Automatic annotation (TrEMBL):
SUPFAM superfamilies: Caspase-like. Belongs to the peptidase C14B family. It comes from Salix viminalis. GO terms for biological process: proteolysis. It comes from the Eukaryota. GO terms for cellular component: cytoplasm. This is METACASPASE-9. Residues 6-301 form the Peptidase C14 caspase domain. Gene3D superfamilies: 3.40.50.12660. GO terms for molecular function: cysteine-type endopeptidase activity.
Amino acid sequence: MDEGKKRMAVLVGCNYPNSRNELHGCINDVLTMKEVLVKRFGFDLSHVQLLTDAPGSVVLPTGANIKKALGHMIDQAEAGDVLFFHYSGHGTRIPSAKPGHPFRQDEAIVPCDFNLITDLDFRQLVNRLPKGASLTILSDSCHSGGLIDREKEQIGPNAATTDNNPKVPSHSPKAIPFESILQHLSSLTNISTSDIGTHFLEFFGSDASLKFRLPPLERDLFESINADEGILLSGCQANETSADMSPHEGGGRSYGAFSNAVQMVLKEHSGQLSNKQLVMMARDVLQAQGFEQQHPCLYCSDQNAGSTFLWQPEC
């Protein structure tokens, strides 16, 4: 890929304040990333959109607002442009809507209004990229492995045996179980059904995920298996959780474990790093910190695995 003409980013941090799902480090994660994008990677502040649920936020990170921001970024893209989406917040897994896959689960992120953005939505965004532009997604959320449907796995599930009782630092998992999401939606729609798609369509209508709005045959049109310019750095495997750290002792700053690991690697290595190098180094950081059951993964084409993270200009 040629050096990008424009560098654009959408950064989303969801702390879900004053709720039973409250997290503490997600907004800090994207504020830190915003600074790094400008100082290290040459992003112009006017091309970086920040969405958080901090008190007083004018535009909240709802499902519709996040998809609108991502869609606008895609619409502005041209060949050679570098696009970036950093999400820090809850993730979840939902039963697959595909016929014949009763035990399969699909990945999704959980915006502040619970209007899920699914792996199919991210696949559709990647498929909309103009030729020669790239979209890098860094998702610091539970069950984020495979968040771009059908993207090729470069660094995947860890096969090593882990301790059944690992000494993991005190943290909160960045996951909301499917049952909790179903219960919440049922309270909004007052419909008695376990079909989550019915609830999404009833309450969110045309703003609901494509996974619930499109017939199965039309969904298949978005599931490209060809090499593309989508790049996913996930905070963990699809069956794992990502950690939200709240080191209140000593007045420490809250953060997401994966986002923090990425920042530590970038701080230690000022030169260019490939996507594969960054993920492997972040894995090492997490393991050294005691996170033996959180394994960041990389999904992208063979070529992009070795490409420079965010196409960092040479110093």
